[in-house]
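pipeline stage [seq->struct] | target=Cyclin N-terminal domain-containing protein | organism=Dendrobium nobile | residues=441
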Amino acid sequence: MDMGAEKQNDVMKSENSQGFRMVGVKYGREMGSSDNRRALRDINNLAGSNVPYPPKIIKKVITEDEKNKQSFVGRRPITRRFAASLAQNSQDCLQNVSTRAKPIGCLVQARNQLVQDTSFACTGDAIYEEEHVAFPIDEPLPMVEDTEEMIDCGMKEVEMEDVEAKLLEDIDICDSDNTLAVVKYVNDIYSFYRETEELGCVPPNYMSTQFDINERMRAILIDWLIEVHYKFELVEETLFLTVNLIDRFLARQSVPRKKLQLVGVTAMLLACKYEEVMVPVVEDLIVISDRAYTRDEVLQMESSIVNTLQFNMSVPTPYMFMRRFLKAAQSDRQIELLSSYIIELCLVEYEMLKFRPSMLAAAAVYTAQCSLKGFKHWTRTSELCTKYSEVQLLDCSRMMVDFHQKSGKGKLTGVHKKYSTFKFGCAAKSEPALFLLDMRN
């Protein structure tokens, strides 16, 4: 057998063993004339050589700076896209070690990327490669122990999320057949309240912009409106919306002292139009104000308030959140009344404007539970529903305990009188949670 046939057999063996054929490389005399045959380059793919297949890639000239850089050693050259993908996968894996999130996804993605990118193209007499890219490997990929730990932590997190979701679902089980409870949408509704509650908040120091009224006058007005609200037998939402309208209007408009009561009764009239089925007439508010204002003045103030607030009247109030949080706490009638008593005490206090409505509601429920149980009580379900931990509520709760302790003293006792009646379970006579005050650092 001549030399050309021997080389051809070697090529066929290489094709059968590797499963593919080098295209465009000429072997043997029958492929062309020996005089004009182009010499093969030394790329270690000559038939009969002892170098194992596949052939090595021709390396480019590497500068001194490139030699100092660490490069990834693999079965193929590192391309820009391949190196960027591996770098991103390595960073994701290292981040997952610390955060214990997505424990094995990054490893699987990196492995799949390695499998997909281990091919190279061969054309003509040479093998073309993309430009080499240095790949830093300063930080190693996680070891087997780390991967197992990440898997365990990931499974525990998934289980914990399922438990938390189940706790939130259990809140509305009792109302599953009540169409008015809108169980399917209630979580979305309160998520919207949480997102928009800041729109109803006012700067906690807005009284500094008023020239003729102060915090004490505001407290007297609200204490009187609580008595008016009780006399007219209005719903609780009306009272909280009334106070919110007053604060938002005073934060934008300077009001003389003689018009402050007019602002209060007009705000109550507007709140009744949003919350009540039977709205008090203007004449009733004039009579309750001892005829200090006329009908035209009330209507004119009503127009001024709605225009100043740009007709944005209905906003999330503490009472809206408190109803939901009481349900999450599985409260009874006694806790509900005491929570309402505590949060109405906060309406009179100007300094409580620094807290968000949801914070006031959560702290009122927490303070009521501590007062009745005699110890700190805040369940995991309440924490998930309110999104406030016990530590976050302590400052606000301690202020509420202080108001509870002093509620029957002084001149502003409208809330205390209201909740001292049998209709409200004599909630004002309950003992405050003074042990919360003793825990101050």
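stage status: PASS
auto-comment: The CA atoms of residues 22 and 211 lie 92 Å apart. The first helix runs from residue 3 to 18.
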